[in-house]
Design a protein that fits this description.
This protein has 97 residues and is mostly helical. The protein has one helix and no strands. It is globular and about 35 Å long.
């Protein structure tokens, strides 16, 4: 697969339910490559939301806290890291506190 960056814009997510948007995101992901686990328990799709929790333990995911996340690559712990990563946004980010 060639390397690069692509933005799929103007998907009318507001027309669909959360379940329907998950299906759309799943189909778009399958167009890229095989979907791999996002968590050790085998979770394939993972919601990233803003929470007001603080980081309480080293094993907490930053995506369930109110902390910023530096640029990173998901799946770096895999023996063969993913060759494509997707993010399907349903809402724009809110302004930081």
């Amino acid at each position: 697969m060639p390397r690069g960056f692509a933005v799929v814009d103007r998907v009318p997510v507001e027309r669909y339910s959360v379940t329907e948007n998950r299906a759309i995101g799943w189909l778009l992901a399958l167009l890229l490559r095989q979907v791999v686990a996002q968590k050790w328990d085998g979770t394939l799709l993972y919601d990233v939301k803003r929470f007001r929790q603080t980081l309480r333990a080293w094993y907490m995911r930053r995506s369930v806290t109110n902390l910023e996340q530096p640029f990173h690559t998901d799946g770096g712990w895999l023996w063969m890291p993913p060759s494509a990563i997707g993010l399907f946004c349903l809402q724009p980010a809110q302004q930081a506190d």
